[in-house]
Design brief:
Layout: H1 2-18, H2 39-49, H3 112-115, H4 118-121, H5 130-141, H6 147-159, E1 162-164, H7 167-172, H8 181-191, E2 210-211, E3 217-218, E4 221-222, E5 232-233, H9 255-263, H10 283-294, E6 299-301
Antiparallel strand pairs: 1-6, 2-5, 3-4
Length: 306
């Protein structure tokens, strides 16, 4: 049994090396046995991801909301679909989703294979029935594809969208000059007084869980209850300085706004997370936290290395 595990680990590490995983991430990029990463699947998934053919009126691709130049977000408070339709939630970041445990702000998809096709079929987003999407994807691929094969290719590509090699990662790896004094103060606050690390943990800076921080609470109710009781998924903070605006509803425009919001303990409501409380940060501490969050931006890679 030990020999079998070792062989699997070597194979996985070799595949991960070929994906050029940035510093700070696990060298093993997980993928299900039913959909192993391969150059062919990833490259097909990339073509599908950037193809507008997968929307009903051929005006929107997956990349239309997940822009590579904006760390695979779109900079809008709420996602926008075909015909100018507006969703009720912000486009979620999709960096390092290979390590995700649940997907969408409410966690309704358990796998990437399930997640990648839902925006295609959603009438407010790409509005294309999946049987038609598979037919169009077949044209892109130059061969017949089933819905499952289309989903597998898209999921494979998304698994290669990786972010790391930030000043924070270099600091953790031993380069003590990678963060300046203010950024190091921000890191100490992040892990201590500001209590950020209670949810933003691990190499991907998220607990992959769901919390009620009070975002979206207005006039005694949540217009969007998320997973239930106002709970939404903790996003990764990788490249957070490039993914404004913030919160599931895009209600906070800047990192400074986010720090102010948490400093006040969020917005009181009956199901507010027990970890939410006033922080009483000084102006210097707030500035240091923002500086540290900006130091989480580094290198984003995608696709199979060419």
């Amino acid at each position: 049994m030990r020999l079998w595990i070792a062989v699997i680990s070597v194979v996985s590490a070799t595949a991960a090396d070929r994906l050029a995983v940035p510093l700070g991430l696990d060298a093993y990029v997980p993928a299900p046995a039913s959909n192993p990463l391969s150059r062919e699947s990833v490259e097909l998934g990339r073509r599908l991801f950037f193809s507008k053919d997968l929307s009903r009126d051929r005006t929107l691709s997956c990349a239309g909301c997940h822009l590579p130049e904006r760390a695979f977000t779109d900079g809008k408070p709420l996602a926008e679909g075909v015909r100018g339709q507006r969703a009720t939630r912000r486009t979620p970041p999709i960096l390092n989703r290979a390590w995700g445990k649940a997907f969408f702000w409410d966690g309704r998809a358990a796998t990437l294979e399930d997640q990648v096709v839902q925006p295609i079929a959603n009438p407010v987003e790409m509005d294309l029935p999946l049987n038609e999407a598979a037919e169009r994807a077949s044209s892109v691929a130059g061969r017949p594809l089933t819905q499952a094969q289309m989903a597998a290719a898209l999921a494979s590509y998304v698994r290669t969208i990786l972010a790391g090699d930030s000043p924070y990662d270099r600091f953790v790896a031993g380069d003590r000059a990678a963060l300046d004094a203010r950024e190091q103060l921000g890191l100490r606050l992040f892990r201590g007084k500001a209590n950020c690390a209670v949810c933003h943990v691990g190499t991907n800076l998220t607990d992959e869980s769901f919390h009620n921080t009070g975002a979206g609470w207005r006039d005694g109710r949540f217009a969007d209850a998320g997973r239930g009781r106002g709970e939404f998924k903790t996003p990764s903070l990788r490249e957070v300085a490039r993914s404004a605006p913030y919160m599931h509803d895009g209600s906070l425009a800047t990192l400074e706004d986010v720090i102010e919001y948490y400093d006040k303990g969020g917005r009181e409501n009956p199901a507010l997370d027990v970890e939410m409380r006033e922080l009483r940060l000084s102006a210097e501490e707030k500035s240091a936290l923002v500086a540290f969050l900006k130091a989480l931006s580094g290198r984003v890679v995608e696709g199979w290395p060419r």
